[in-house]
Design goal:
By secondary structure, the protein is of the alpha/beta class. Helix content is 44%, strand content 14%. Helix 3 packs parallel to helix 8. This is tRNA (guanosine(18)-2'-O)-methyltransferase. GO terms for molecular function: methyltransferase activity.
Length: 221
């Protein structure tokens, strides 16, 4: 039986996309990472969720985790500007579910907060995989996340204002840690299997009538 997750399926799909698009996928995937992942908790304003997704996409963080304990969500496509096609969004009903899942994958849980006696951004240890948690500007992260965190991170600020909007905070943190990561000798890139999976996924999202195309592939002898 034919497999829709192997190299043969990818080769078939790539017959339906341009050489330039194939090359673009390969070049972008060279910069993608799961060494860091981002989690946002109960963000009421949709444009903030979408803006964080765009930030992840722009700086090469492949996965975004969204905790929806209080509010139902939908991605604001106008703000995300297509980022939802290229970033993997994992949704969780509770903070416990999200934290347990990420810890099982080997991530340290890092809570961003201006109030803890915590690590300054420039001093943050990038060598270990980490899930960076962001909360709302008004309420911050929940007590559960704060108690279960393995560490705390804050952005150095010198003005009267104590906190930044989540989208601004996420952009500053993600840009800093991914830039430092790419300048390091840490093994931060996607594995060959992860790259194959994303090449198939992105190719599928680029092809009109993909279900019909896939059915034709499966019917081939």
């Amino acid at each position: 039986m034919k497999n829709t997750s192997d190299i043969h399926y990818l080769n078939y799909l790539e017959e339906f996309i341009t050489e330039n698009r194939k090359e673009t996928f390969l070049n972008i995937l060279k910069t993608r990472t799961k060494h860091f992942t981002v989690a946002i908790e109960d963000i009421f304003q949709l444009h903030n969720t979408s803006a964080v997704m765009r930030t992840c996409e722009v700086f090469g963080v492949q996965e975004l985790n969204v905790i929806e304990e209080k509010y139902g969500k939908r991605i604001d496509k106008e703000i995300a500007l297509g980022a939802q096609k290229w970033v993997d969004v994992n949704r969780y009903a509770t903070a416990t579910e999200c934290i347990d899942n990420l810890k099982a994958k080997g991530y340290r849980i890092i809570a961003t907060t201006p109030h803890e006696n915590s690590c300054m951004l420039d001093e943050f240890d990038i060598t270990q995989p980490a899930a960076i948690f962001f909360g709302t500007e008004k309420n911050g992260l929940s007590e559960e996340v704060m108690q279960k965190a393995d560490g705390f991170l804050k952005i150095p600020m010198v003005g009267f204002t104590e906190s930044l909007n989540i989208s601004s905070s996420a952009a500053i943190v993600i840009q800093n840690i991914t830039n430092r990561l790419r300048k390091s000798d840490i093994n931060w890139k996607l594995t060959d299997d992860e790259i194959l999976d994303k090449r198939i996924d992105w190719s599928r999202k680029s092809i009109k009538d993909i279900d019909f195309i896939t059915q034709k592939y499966l019917e081939q002898e």
